[in-house]
Structure formats: structure tokens, C-alpha cells
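Problem 12. The chain below contains 298 residues. Write out its predicted structure in C-alpha cell notation.
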Amino acid sequence: MPGPTPERPPVRLLRAPYDSGHRDVRMGAGPTALSRAGAASRLRSRGHAVREELVAPASDWQAELATAFELQRLVAAAVADARAAGEVPLLLAGNCNTTLGVLAGMRADHRRVGLVWLDAHGDFNTPEEDTSGFLDGQGLAMMVGRCWRALAGDVPGFQPLPERDVVLVGARDLSEAQVAVLERSALTWLRPEQVRRPADLAGALDGLARRVDAVHFHVDLDVHDPSIAPANGYAAPDGLTAEEVLGVLLATAARLPVVSATLASYDPAYDIEDRMRTTALALLEQVAAVAVVSGRRA
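Solution.
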């Protein structure tokens, strides 16, 4: 087995096993399942030095809103510490909105960090528009400052991303109202069929590369087509193949350093014969390989 080389940045593998404030249930069970399936050991077998860290609130009492933002603050501190130690932060999260903490922690580097966000959904709702009451449907809207500004502002280092510095990839399960909001926004939205057109993907990433210095790569695992296996209870048809998701990662890394990443929203209860778990672990290996190379040139 190859050992870590001195020039290869170590990986800080963070685990936030919460969904809507509850630990190890629904999508909150995903990070634990991936960890138990050998996420860290698989990275070590590829030559990475890995430090694992559980991110968990200190209080036994949890509530969706309070716990979500507490997790973001804890992740921000862990990511800032990882970067100070020369480590590459990779997050396994139950909910997508926990990525806000990664972006906040990356601010310590004083770089312009853009966001490539793969998801079956827009996650671009605001509380005034959202009839579901599901905070995670507002995750990307939080990142760009469309909602929860006071609570997000309490996450150390967080500043809203300019919408133009976001590329949303693979979103397809959207209401007409959600489509209209996305089309009026300044972010770049690539539908699945556009991902399959090399010129469209290249154009979006080239535009991003002109505006930012590095990228956080976020994958809600339900961006994958459920023919692999449903990633969660929100899985929608006509998604991306594992090869297409990898293609987006490699196309991004060809233009910009991928300095951190999130894999989120895996609910093992919906998996079929562990096929999505296998897909997620293989993707984690690829993300780590790309990120440590990026860490050397970032």
C-alpha cells in the first residue's frame, strides 16, 4: 500500500451526521454509513493521510434551525483549523446547508472561492416562498445571502457568495416558480442535458474561472439518476450518471483548484444493494485525489 508523500496535503475528513437537527436518522444516517463502510480507510489505501473528525453540537437538545447553524459554526472552525494545518477539508454531511460552514472556514485563506453545486433540486427557496418548511430546501439561497442573513452572519468567516460565482449543476426537480427564480438569478444553472453538451459545461466553468481563484465542490448525491439507486427520499428521475458527475469534477479541476468538497444527502434506507453507497465512496476517492493535487497548486 503506498504511503503519503511529503508534498501531498493530508485530508481532514469531517462527518456531520444530522438531518433537520436529528442525528443518524434519514439523511443524517448517511455520513455514519459511509464512515462504517470504510470511507477513511479507502482514502488511506490510495495513499492519503487522513484525520477523521466528528462534528456534533455540545448540547443534547437539538432543533432544526438552531442545530443547523451550530453545525455550520463548528464546521467553519474545523475547516479553518484544517487549512491552517495544511489539510484538505472534505465533509460528509446529512444536510446540504452544512456546506455554508465549509465556505466560511475557507475564507481564512483570503481567496475568492466559488461554488460548483450538484443537486437534483435548486435549494434556492426562501422562508417567504417555501411551503415545505424544510430548511435544507433553502441551503443554496443561504450561501448567496437570500435568507437567514443574521444567523449565517454569526458563522465565523462567512460572507455571502456573489450569485455569479455559483454554478448549479443537474437541478431538475423544480416547480415552475422555482424555475422562474433560478432564471432571474445571476447564478449559472446547467440542466442535465446541458451537462452532456461539452460546450455548455466548458462555458460555465470558464466563466467561473475568470471570477474566482478556487472552488468548493458540493455534491448532493441525489444529483445521480435513481437508476443507480435512490440516494434519498427526494430522488428524481433523469439525473446524471456516476461517469457524468465525475466528468463535472474533472472539468472543474482542469480550470480551477478544487480546495474542498462536500458529499451530502445520502439516506441508506433508500439504497438498493448498497449501490449508492458504492457510488459515493468511489466519488469520494476521486474528489480526494483531485483536491490534494489542487492543494499543491492552490
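Discussion. Confidence is low (pLDDT under 50) at residues 1-6. Students who got a different answer should revisit the alignment rule from Section 12.3.
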